[in-house]
Amino acid sequence: MPVINRVADFADEIATWRRDFHENPELLFDVHRTASIVADKLKAFGCDEVVTGIGRTGVVGVIKGRSSSSGKVIGLRADMDALPIQEATEVPYKSKVPGKMHACGHDGHTAMLLGAAKYLAETRNFDGTAIMIFQPAEEGGGGGDAMCREGLMERFGIQEVYGMHNMPGIPVGSFAIRPGPVMAASDQFHVVIEGRGAHAARPHESIDPIVVASHVVTALQSIAARNVDPLHSAVVTVGSIKAGDTYNVIPQSATLLGTVRTLTPEWRDLCEERVKTVVQNVCAAFGAKVTVEYRRGYPVTFNDPERTHFMAAVAKDVAGERNVDTGIDPLMGAEDFSYMLEARPGAYIFVGNGNTAGVHHPAYDFNDEAAPYGASLWARLIEAGMPAR
Ligand SMILES: [Zn+2]
Ligand SMILES: [Zn+2]
Q1: What is the block-wise mean pLDDT of the chain (389 residues), using blocks of 10 residues?
Q2: b (16+ CB within 10 A) / e for 2-40
Q3: Separation of 104 CA from ligand 1 center, angstroms?
Q4: Among 26, 79, 81, 272, which one carries the catalytic annotation?
Q5: Could you give the 3-state DSSP secondary structure of residue 237?
Q6: Which DSSP state fits 139?
Q7: I need a labelling partner for 296 at 20 to 30 A (CA). Which of 5, 143, 152, 315 fits?
């Protein structure tokens, strides 16, 4: 069973919506234009209820099946926001906004879920309620968290929730998924080392924050190498060191910025404790003062094994058995759909974007040929998850 014929019928329409979003990218929670188009379309499709302003600019469309005696309610989620990147493609629908572009394919995610909504509102060939969730601010703003905090799950009675992201590098018409952790938790640390400045030729009068910072960076490497079980994964990366202005002065202070990525709550707790302990004690050894600010970001995106199995079966139905990889490695990137998966069981799948530039690259473009697969997966998931009587 390939893509749903009726969905394929309006593939051109989905591409038109997608290209319009692509031309008009919006950042974080400021997705007002996108959200209002989404809401208008959901109403035009005949959704039973369309609610705006959840999580500031989130939109929800409710579609009831021909019957709802099963009492089942399944949520499907897309993200709507773009990135602060200058587009470097020459496509005719290139971003019209300088410094902003849809470099993560959320234009495609929004259009695919709209395509599924159109089909589901037209056919209603299921027994239960489908909830179409369009969230703002996936790229660092925690829009998924904001929607959950405003009672998304409770208000619509959502029992299970599913997400989808495109993946460059795997063929169009294929899907990839895994049970358990699929994307990492992402935390940040901000370290300010306070030493004592001096003339570069009189180092004995200083507490050199550059030397201290260098030891801190080296010591931090031991966390992933010597504290985390080698059969598990963790990333501790220092992405910025700032200290000093010239060649003959030992500066007063140094600032380090970094990120920690982990795949389980246990290793996340351990890494946080180790980062603080290592930084504080290395600095103390050199007599420098230090402040460590450790901020937790998106949690681990955890695929419920049973729902993953179900979602993979639906993907195989749409794309064919051999085009669905059910055992991909987890990614150390982060995803704020994780908050929805903390609130309700569900799963997150990747849809092939073909041989395009990677996400967050200025030459990236969502592949419109992937949309019928993604939209068909959404539609089938509702029909298979809440079969009509
Ligand atoms: Zn992204
Ligand atoms: Zn993304």
Answers
A1: 77 97 98 98 98 98 96 98 97 98 98 98 97 97 97 98 98 98 98 98 98 98 95 96 97 98 96 98 98 97 98 97 97 97 98 97 98 97 96
A2: ebbeebbebbeebbebbbebbbbbbbbbbbeebbebbbe
A3: 5
A4: 81
A5: strand
A6: T
A7: 152
